[in-house]
Amino acid sequence: MNQNNIDPVEVFNFAVAKKCKRIIICHNHPSGDTKPSEADKQVTQKIKKGADVLNIELLDHLVICESKEFYSFKAFELL
């Protein structure tokens, strides 16, 4: 797959049902390149805004790949 399929509604349905106060979201890049796409950045900001409204802290968004490398939005100050 080469598209972003993170659904903020599903993220928050789960988080609210489990009464989460903090969440970390994560997805993989099968290409092996952990650098986030513009779509990744946009959906992260949507989730961040929704989390703020629901008083849920978005701790990080991780992009992982098969080589065990990862990209942390928090580490690169994109959260």
UniProtKB/TrEMBL annotation:
The domain of life is Bacteria
Record keyword Protease present: yes
Lineage, uppermost ranks: Bacteria, Pseudomonadati, Bacteroidota, Flavobacteriia, Flavobacteriales
Which PANTHER family does this UniProt record tie to the protein? DNA REPAIR PROTEIN RADC (PTHR30471), UPF0758 PROTEIN YEES-RELATED (PTHR30471:SF3)
Q: Which keywords annotate this record?
A: Hydrolase, Metal-binding, Metalloprotease, Protease, Zinc
Q: Which InterPro entries match?
A: MPN, RadC_JAB, UPF0758, UPF0758_CS
Write the protein's name: MPN domain-containing protein
In this chain the MPN domain maps to 1-79
